[in-house]
Specification:
8-stranded mixed beta sheet; alpha/beta; 2 domains; Rossmann fold
Length: about 400
């Protein structure tokens, strides 16, 4: 076992991956073993005798569906003393952007501090008495999804407090090869875009943690350990992991929802564009009240996006298309959002960005730039906008290589 601890029991201040698969045999081909599974199989040795804070929510489960907080609370020799919950709360039912209150967890009886209320980062008072902070939540592979932002803020807090930070790694449901979408301009970094990575980065939480720690994106650096998965490979999307999907938030109910989120999530931040959120097909719709369903659908079909299909959609005065994405789709999914914006603008009676710039602050923060507004309003071709991402994405593929943990 590679834990890299000193004789005093303290972790050395380096990024460490627990490479355990070779020591314990090959994982079953049909199911990936999660970081929590690996931790459990080694009797929680890196947590023995420690007072633990756990950053988690309802998605923190092992490969059998048992909640991580329940597992750690019952682990012999481990003292779980506090929980920390992100956006959507400990149970994942709070709406997007809504205040999450601190509470007592009914499952463990432990206090659960909110990291989406008065603060997005654990305070010194919250961390007082803790020996280690552990992170276990399921991300969806998109820069604007805030669970990774929470991880980065917790890394910073751990670094400031001088306590180790451990990531129990999980699959990227989009796979580890897809890198696409707009880059992040430094002035637009925020909680919905905490890291300067492409909109779709193709990395796991553990890999991102390593990169953020090494590059100083989380400051000060923390004493970081990654508990690797067994059996996950970069070409795997969620449907190939053999794991059950837990809705990560109200509008990400299905294992394929992350594909739709990156396809229409950005366009959905623009007022008047309907993407199906709040209904049975979140992010699977692209429609507005000033378009024609057949014409809109015809345009999207003409793009010949491999692995993506479109059918006409008309409901409650909104017209556009319904989108279907294959997990193996070769198309640039982030490009779909740009095509939607361009088509919506072309048929709109005025700018789809009408109103003060502040009205679109979240859109710009998610996109990583406000340049998209000028480009769409001026009728710049979608292909030109999309191609402008390629240089940054190519550089990122090279930059991320030292931090990749899986083949």
């Amino acid at each position: 076992m590679i834990f890299n601890q000193s004789k005093t029991g303290r972790f050395f201040p380096v990024c460490v991956a627990l490479v355990l698969g070779a020591l314990l045999g090959t994982a079953q081909a049909q199911q990936v073993e999660l970081g929590i599974d690996v931790l459990k199989s080694h009797d929680f040795s890196i947590l023995q005798g420690k007072r633990v804070g756990l950053v988690t929510n309802h998605t923190g489960i092992d490969s059998h569906g048992v909640k991580t907080r329940k597992i750690v609370a019952k682990a012999p020799g481990v003292h779980l003393v506090a929980l920390f919950a992100p956006e959507h709360g400990l149970d994942g039912v709070v709406g997007a952007g809504k205040y999450v209150a601190a509470k007592k967890d009914s499952l463990t009886g432990l206090p659960c501090y909110s990291l989406y209320g008065p603060t997005r980062k654990p305070t010194p008072a919250m961390l007082k008495g803790l020996d280690v902070l552990v992170y276990d939540m399921q991300d969806i592979g998109s820069r604007s999804y805030t669970y990774i932002s929470t991880m980065v803020k917790c890394m910073e807090a751990a670094g400031e407090a001088g306590i180790p930070f451990i990531v129990l790694d999980r699959p990227n449901p989009l796979g580890g090869q897809r890198v696409e979408g707009p880059p992040m301009e430094p002035q637009w970094i925020s909680f919905v875009g905490q890291l300067p990575v492409p909109y779709v980065h193709g990395m796991t939480a553990g890999e991102l943690a390593q990169m953020a720690n090494a590059k100083g994106w989380a400051t000060p650096k923390c004493n970081l350990t990654i508990v690797k998965m067994r059996g996950w490979q970069r070409e795997m999307t969620w449907n190939q992991t053999g794991l059950q999907w837990i809705a990560t938030s109200p509008n990400i109910p299905y294992s394929n929802s992350p594909f739709y989120y990156v396809a229409t999530g950005l366009a959905g931040e623009v007022e008047g564009i309907e993407t199906g959120c709040g209904g049975p097909e979140p992010f699977q719709i692209a429609a507005c009240k000033w378009t024609d369903a057949d014409r809109f659908t015809g345009y999207m079909r003409s793009l010949d996006l491999r692995g993506v299909s479109f059918t006409p959609y008309s409901k409650n005065g909104f017209e556009g298309c319904r989108i279907r994405i294959e997990p193996s789709a070769e198309a640039d999914l982030c490009a779909i959002g740009v095509y939607i914006l361009a088509a919506a603008q072309k048929s709109a009676p005025r700018s789809i960005f009408a109103g003060p710039a502040s009205k679109y602050d979240i859109f710009y923060k998610c996109y990583g730039s406000n340049s998209i507004r000028v480009a769409i309003e001026r009728g710049v071709s979608p292909s030109k906008i999309i191609s402008s991402w390629s240089g940054a994405n190519s550089s990122f593929r090279t930059d991320r290589k030292p931090y990749l943990l899986y083949p």
